[in-house]
Design a protein that fits this description.
single chain; about 525 residues; alpha+beta; 4-stranded antiparallel sheet; 19 strands; transport; protein transport
Amino acid sequence: MVSLRDNWRIALLVVFVLVSTFALFSPTLAPDDTGGAGGAVANDSGVTNLQYGLQLSGGTRVRAPLVGITAEEVQFGGDQPRAVERNVASQLSNATPSDVIARPTGQNVGTVEVTVENVTQAELRSALQRAGYEYGTVRDGVTETTRQDAVSVLENKINEAGLSGGTVQTVRTATGEHFILIEVPNRDRSEVLDLVSERGTVVIQAYYPAENGSGYQTREILQQDDFQSIGTATESQRGGAFVPVTVEQSAARDFQQAAVETGIAQPGGTTCTYRENPNGTEPCLLLVVNGEVVNAFGMSPGLAQGMRSGEWANAPEFQLQTRNLTEAQQVAINLRAGALPAKLDMTGPDGGTSSYVSPSQGSDFKSNSLLTGLVAVFAVSGVVFFRYREVRVAAPMVVTALSEVVILLGFAAGIGYPLDLSVIAGFIAVIGTGVDDLIIIADEVMAEGQINSRRVFQSRFKKAFWVIGAAAATTIIAMSPLAVLSLGDLQGFAIFTILGVLVGVLITRPAYGDILRALTTKER
């Protein structure tokens, strides 16, 4: 007589399959399109709750390192980080203070990163020596903090641009190199590259006549971090557009003083003709994006009077005027998202790569993946039936192996993990290793002839399970580094292979043992 006590493992398997099926098809658990762990995602057409990665949905992938050289254990000598940045930049021919990042790591010691292209390790060593800073080692690449800052900024850029489903993460190669991996579904390559390839630096410069009368000079008077809030890009009734901004109180006084000293906030305000006549204009404020002057404007009489009287700093607000709404929106994106601490390196032998998968190609990959899975199932089923020639042994084996796939699919749907080709490969590996373990169980149990009692079955089953457990432990140990480390596509393969092994050892293999015992034991 069959009892729940004797077959609770089968009942547990059934429960897991039902829960997984519910996660796959229940409309109440349908995930949104905001993205999931492991890559850019796109929702299925509505049949299931599965989400698909870039390879199966289409879109753009960009993989690139950050430009930079880092000096470690730099002795700051009591200087503040910004002073260190200015001093080091002054010793480099093609760098500005915004291209140098000084990060304290201890008392008067830290790292100095130069994030401009074409600066060598030797040049950074020489610049540190001339600036009077002792240092430890100099290496290629940037710090982990800079990489995480870059991920955060790129995520903000993607969100501000309305590219839903886009994801950004850091990955590390087997040789220890670090890359930024960006995946944006349903977007072409040029659009994504235009958004993420530039650093997005935005500064305000004063442009005013030099004291000796020999032309004009510039002076940086506001950096990106000096803005407290960025308003929405708005079209002006008089033409053009503007972005209302508020300056941090800590920077407002210095900005106000600089505007007065450079003549921008002169009585009656200033009229800027920089674009028409840069060598004959009144003092201007220049809006510089990515090193390029995108706009120049003077100062209204009211704003100039407020700065000269000192009252403006109490409510430090003004407008960044642009020629059109598109330009204003781009300025707003750069200001809100922040500047990339370092540029993505898309050149050189270790430079970045970008790829585009069309939606139709992604659909083909999806269909081919399904076909491959079905072929694997039928191939395994054929081999199993040919091996045993007994339906009562082979059929439960195939059904049990397929239940593992259902459980894993339900898990992926439940947490919103996007399926890509590497995950599909993990599923196929799970089918193969799962059936292999079930064959070990069946051979061990049936190899020595008829099973006359539960005790005999349990003895044979335990021998087989020790072999399966040892193999599972080996697989988990081998795959764990790939699952933990950020190694791109290999991570998804490792995660689902490990999950498949755990589901097999804890749920499906014991359940198959109960099924096999019920079908083969002669004891009443």
